[in-house]
Amino acid sequence: MKATLVNQTLGQAPSITCVPSRTAFPRRAIATIKLYAERWSRRYQLRNSLYEMDTRLIEKDIGLPYGSLAEEAHKPFWRE
Hints:
By secondary structure, this protein is mainly α. Helices cover 64% and strands 0% of the residues.
């Protein structure tokens, strides 16, 4: 902050640069991988439980079109 004030008082443009630390990228990458792993794990568990249920009765009960839950159960975990 003081460097900027000195530069401004001398009539120069402020020259503050933001240099990311060397550990910022790996931490963000690991956090992103964890996020995807958690998301995929939830989808995998949900689709496995849907696969084991009688989806026709559930669809009839809540008013979904026939086959929509079975289609969801057969999707790979990485697809949304």
